Each structure stands twice: as C-alpha cells, then as structure tokens.
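User: quick one, fold this
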Amino acid sequence: MAPLKFCANLSWLFTELPDFSQRMFAAASVGFQAVEAAWLYDSDLQELQRAREATGVALVLINTPPGDVGAGDLGVGAVPGREAEFRQGLDLAVKYARALDCKRIHLMAGRVPVGSDRTAVAKEMEAIFVQNLNYAADVLSKEGIIGLIEPINTRITDPRYFLDSPHHAAEILQKVGKPNIKLQMDVFHWQIMDGNLTQNIHKYFPIIGHVQIAQVPGRNEPDSAGELNYSYLFSTLENLGYQGYIGCEYKPLGSTKDSLGWFKDYCTHSK
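Assistant:
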C-alpha cells in the first residue's frame, strides 16, 4: 500500500514569510516534496521558477484568478456576464501553470451575485459553469492539465458561493463529461455541508482529482481538537489506493512548523 503524498498550501502555511518563493524553500526544508497555492499572480514568475528549481519541489495546484476581490468576487466561472473574464483568467492560470510545470488548476465557480436569489439564478449559473468548464477542458487538454471544481461550504465559510456540495459538483461533472475535469475534495467543506464522509469518499472516489484537509470547525491542523479523525480518513484513502496529492490547507494554531507534528508522524510511520 503506497503512502499518501502531502503538499503544503503556501497561501495558508508558512505565512510567517512574506513571499511565495521563501515559503517554497521553507516547505522543502521540513520535508514537503510538493506545494500548492491559491493565487500566485502577484508574484514574479521568474522568481517562482528559480525557487521551484532550486528546491526541487513540485507545484501541484493553483486556482484561476479570483476576479475583483474588492468587489466581492471569489472566481467567476459560474457568474452571469463574466464569461470573457473567465477565459482571460484561465489564460493567465495556464501561463503560470505551464511555466511552473503545474498539472492541476482549480476552476473557481464564484458567488451568487449580490441581490440575486440563489434559487432564481441556479439554473442560469449552472449552465454558464458547464459552458465554461467545457471550454476549459479543451484548453487544458492541450496542456496536459487537469481542471478541478471544488464545493465550498455555505454554512460557515462563504454563504454566497455557488458550488457548495459534492453532490451538485458530481452532477455538473456528469453534464460536462470531460475526463480532464475532476472533483476537488476539501474534507473541511464536505464535513460541514454533508458529513457522511466515508460513504461520500467511496461514492465519488472515481472522480476525485485532488484532496485538501483541515480540522472542523476551526480549520486548523488535522490533529487539533475537532470533529474529524484523520487517522481513519488517511487509512480510508490509502485503502482506496489514492495516488494524488493531499493539500494542507489549514490555519496553524501556532507557527507552521509547530503545526506539522502529524505530518512528521505520518512520514515516519509510513516508511
């Protein structure tokens, strides 16, 4: 049984350091062989390339641009009237992914527009998302890149996010029907929205292309106090033969290094 592979999310971990290049070196220094990040677009691309080459770590996931954060955007993939902006953002993400040899891009759905009723706009937003995902699938297939969609919980984290359950995500993926568009399972969000993790992991395992972890409800390190038994969940993924990466997307209770006891223990016991 192959051990699981973990990657440090540089948007959440090693934030004691000001830039992503420094965080990449820090991640490598504590044993991570891979990293992921939400948005690298304010960073110098050549500097990121140098850091990746110097550390030898793989960059395994980035997100499409969020849009206008100041105006309340968190992606535009399902947002009416923003199709051209989605394509422009995808082009930028592909540029960074190609330069950094990153093989996964999270295609962010975005939020229900302010003032709109979720139920009233749901069908339109889903149709736009499916259309944009089909476009992205064709673009990404030429690059050998997997596109991912991620449900984000609307109970705690983001009440207006459009895609909020693994069940809805699976329905959308079925409508898209492209093998290079897959499901990103953030265990934190799945637990908050639906629970039933064992059954949902088994049910959706064939379409899962990436995993992220954090404890519930505080979104801290996996071995902090909370609802989830990560020893069991890791065993579940091992037994299913999960070969992808698991992103550490959590808020350390203290320093990042102090939050990695679970990671060191796993690496020691899996040898």
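User: anything notable?
Assistant: The chain is about 40% helix and 15% strand.
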